[in-house]
From TrEMBL:
Source organism per UniProt: Rickenella mellea
Residues annotated as transmembrane: none
Enoyl reductase (ER) domain residues: 21-347
Any one GO cellular component localisation term in the record: mitochondrion
InterPro entries hit by this protein: ADH-like_N, ER, GroES-like_sf, NAD(P)-bd_dom_sf, YIM1/Zinc_Alcohol_DH_Fams
UniProt protein name: NAD(P)-binding protein
A GO molecular function held by the record: oxidoreductase activity
Amino acid sequence: MSTETTQIPQVQKVWRVVGSGLPAKALKLEEIPVPSDLQPGEVLVKIQAAALNPVGYKLMKMLPNWLAKRPHVAENDFAGVVVDANGTAFANGDEVFGWIPTDLQQKTSQGCLAQYARVPVDYFVKKPNNITPTEAAGITLTAATAYKGLVEIAQIEEGQSVFINGGSSSVGIFAIQIAKSKGCKVVASCSSKNTDFVKSLGADEVLDYKASPLSQQLTTNPPTPKFHVIFDCIGLTSPELYTKSAPYLAPNGIFVTVGFNVSSLKQVPGILRTAVNAFLIPAWLGGVKPKWKVFVVTNRKERLDDIRKLVQDGTVKPVVDSTYEFEDALKAFDKLMSERAVGKVVVNVV
Ligand SMILES: NC(=O)c1ccc[n+]([C@@H]2O[C@H](COP(=O)([O-])OP(=O)(O)OC[C@H]3O[C@@H](n4cnc5c(N)ncnc54)[C@H](OP(=O)(O)O)[C@@H]3O)[C@@H](O)[C@H]2O)c1
């Protein structure tokens, strides 16, 4: 047993999801045992920082306890230090970043708003030296989403033209940088206050989504050639972006979305319209020709390795919106739930 292992305390502070509702109701700051039951292939990580993601509070609000397998520690993204390498290829003292995605969180009751977590080695990578733990904490979930949407599903290629809906969102920030790193032309949407920021990420053109509906803007001023890919990083708040895309999305192109942002029942008709156009009406009867694909990100070790390389060589830079102390995690959730953060909302754990 290493010296560091002997210094591991028996109890730790965690924010645990103990019920359903908004974070102020669903979360409790508790003391629970530090995991001591490491399985082969797992390490014990001392967490330095945890980043918040919308999926955390959405599941708190939407799922009953039995379905969400509560209680479990909150949140999915971390940066930390390996303190018990448990015979794996990692060493005590390695600085790492990674995640405990929802499926693993529900299976093991582990999460990242904690001082310690046991994590399988396929779920994290070594932190490059050019970023801080606070920056590293916010990479995995959203960078993996952007990578999966653009590289694995849309299979973007050099010279293609890509529209990123939501360029200042955490997913969009990584998506713009990844698309540029592959040699694509990028047009992105954001509100006017974020135009300079989104351009600084590499976007070639920026549209203000608040000025008028994006489908109208793109129809009035269509790109030449048409987009190969539209990547919706927000959650299809405007279904017309797909259903009216004929003037600006190539017929053999693809519309990829992170899902439906079902914050209000008013969105249900739009969601149904999208589904009907995507799946029920054939193109020859007026349905939309380009493919439509929704996905949920899951773990893939090779993807994490690729993302690490992009960060290490400076091609992709994480962006932090704000940082909070551990005891102030509820304030961090308020910031995230404002839906106005530009980059990751991070809770420092040490
Ligand atoms: N399917 C998956 O596996 C997966 C994975 C990760 C995330 N998601 C989903 O993806 C969405 C984004 O997550 P995130 O973490 O990137 O969110 P986030 O960082 O909290 O997004 C906040 C940003 O979105 C911008 N924004 C809000 N509404 C917009 C709109 N209608 N058009 C353009 N920009 C808008 C805001 O800018 P302004 O202030 O300028 O509006 C703000 O900068 C969430 O719905 C999340 O649940 C899905």
